[in-house]
Amino acid sequence: MNTYVSPTPDITSLRTDSDRLWEALMEMAKLGATPKGGVNRQALTDLERKGRDLFIQWCRAEGCTIRIDNIGNIFARREGSDPNAKAVMAGSHLDSQPTGGKYDGCFGVLSGLEVIRTLNQHNITTQSPIEVVAWTNEEGCRFPPCMMGSGVFTGELAFDAMMARADADGVTVSDALDAIHYRGSDNVSPSEIKAYFEPHIEQGPILEDTDTTIGVVIGGLGQKWFDLTLTGLEAHAGPTPMNLRRDAMMGAAEVTQALNRIAFDHQPHGRGTVGCMTLHPGSRNVIPGQVKMTLDMRHWEPEALETMGQAVAAAVEEICQRHGLEYHLEPTANFAPEYFDKACVDAVRQSTEHLELSHMDIISGAGHDAMFVGRVAPAAMIFIPCKDGISHNEIESATPEHVHAGCNVLLHAMLNAAGIVSSVGGTGE
Ligand SMILES: [Zn+2]
Predict the structure, then answer these.
(1) Do 181 and 207 fall within a single domain?
(2) In 203-289, at which residue ranges do the beta strands (DSSP E only) sit?
(3) Per-residue pLDDT at 383 exceeds 50
(4) Between the N and C ends of the chain, which has fewer C-beta atoms within 10 Å?
(5) Which residues place a Cβ less than 5 A from the ion ligand 1?
(6) What does the entry list as the binding residues for Zn(2+) 2 (predicted)?
(7) How far apart are CA 423 and CA 9, in angstroms?
């Protein structure tokens, strides 16, 4: 400790430590590291437990208090000067896809930790507490649905129903939480949040394509998901003439094309994807009698998303009539577009401008914990580019420069929202 109080350092020139953040990312990536350079650290496994333990160990070393709620979300808190002030929060998730990358999720959580390390190093007191959160099971690959922890936290997903969700081996979320000792009893309420910021890799190609460092995320696309079952009649591929077939696969092919056309008709924001398809009976010389497929539609405007949904339903009806098929079209998800809080978005944009980084407004096409948090508290996101726009892949990659830039944008957005009380000399230890 210095024997004198040095002048208050210029907060505007404050920067996070790029090497320290990078080391933390690489250290975390060792847990579940895959041969191709990625990560397999699925939610509530023992490997993910190690990631949680490591995160908590790092936060405790910075003097944070830890709270864990009933779905295993971890909150690490650095107190501010005002005991009644709401927290300025940052976070994301530590779980990964089976063939995931090092940055999806961890970049957000560890950037939040790096902000706390930076504030400690420079003895900076904020008015509001600073809190970093690691949400449980964002990926949803072991236990669907995705964004489970933030969904339960915000009341968008029912706690009891989520605890009963089972993985492919029949292990429930409840069992898995107990097995890794992360079923917490702390009550953390969305009403405690003043502002929530989530840094994340873009998971798309736009920033890289436009050579832009920071995406100021103004919100997320709305989503409509359906399960579609088309039923025709299986018959021998040889003796059955073309005009007498009820070929479910022909219906599926035309529905796929229709969905694609409808998405193109609703540019620039429309998206349409058939991601799964199973054919029954699945024999090379049998006309498929049944096809089950998924439809995923997204748009930025609620009316357009509604129109897309109606257009797809009409196309399914028409196609099935023409091919003599029966169908069942079942909605499985319906999320309105998320428009982030203007003050939070402005805080991100201002800190980007302050840091003189290239930036653009961007809309997230993927779901993130921030979308749920944004429904109950002011929220925004910070995107950085990822190589070739690829994520959910072991080759997922981001540069140290972009990681550092995104973390500094987070630092200044959080300081802006939290308010500085004092900062005393030295660079600390
Ligand atoms: Zn993610």
Answers:
(1) yes
(2) 214-220, 222-231, 235-236, 271-273, 277-280, 286-287
(3) yes
(4) C
(5) 104-105
(6) 104, 139, 392
(7) 7
- pLDDT reading at 341 higher than 70: yes
Say whether both 141 and 176 belong to one domain: yes
392 φψ region: left (φ > 0), alpha (ψ -120 to 50), beta (else): left
Q: Which domain holds residue 249?
A: 222-335
Ligand 1 centroid vs 105 CA: distance in angstroms? Answer: 4
Residue recorded with tokens 């080759």: 395
Which of these, 372, 388, 382, lies nearest to 417 by C-alpha position? Answer: 382
Give the per-residue pLDDT at 424.
53
Ligand 1 centre to CA of 138 (Å) is 7
164 and 290 co-located in one domain: no
pLDDT at 33 over 80: yes
Residue 6's pLDDT band, with cuts at 50, 70 and 90, is very low
Judge whether residue 8 has pLDDT over 70. no
Q: Give me the pLDDT at residue 408, please.
A: 98
4 domain-assigned: no
- Binding-site residue numbers for Zn(2+) are 93, 104, 139, 200, 392
Q: Say how many Å lie between the CA of residue 93 and the centre of ligand 1.
A: 6
Type of residue at 316: V
